[in-house]
Amino acid sequence: MAEQYLQRHHLKPVERNFTCRSGEIDLIMRDKSCVVFVEVKFRKQNHFGSAAEAVNWRKQQKLKRAALLWLKKNSLSTEHTEFRFDVVAIQGPDQQIEWFTNTLVEG
Known about the structure:
- This is UPF0102 protein P3TCK_24285.
- By secondary structure, this protein is α+β, with helices and mostly antiparallel strands.
- The protein has 2 helices and 5 strands; from the N terminus they run αβββαββ.
- The protein has one domain (2-100): Trna Endonuclease, Chain: A, domain 1, CATH 3.40.1350.
- It has helices at residues 2-8, 57-73; strands at residues 12-20, 23-31, 34-43, 83-91, 96-100.
- The protein has a 5-stranded mixed beta sheet with strand order 1-2-3-4-5.
- The termini are far apart.
């Protein structure tokens, strides 16, 4: 569902469910020349926080390590490759989708 949503917004799929020791990346997409690492979160209810809130600092760090490994594996340098981290949050019985771009914040 998240991949189809992003495709409707002109992102192109590259890879799904990339896994490594550092973690997993749900979707890897391209937005023109930018590689987009996407974390997808689903919550039927928000009793324990929203879907977007589930992407905490620890999860972001795992995502970052996995992304760096993916870039290296694909012979792409961090200095010469445009990339970002997005979150697609799907929530509620009506499966409302929210898309947050460039979510990884250092510090």
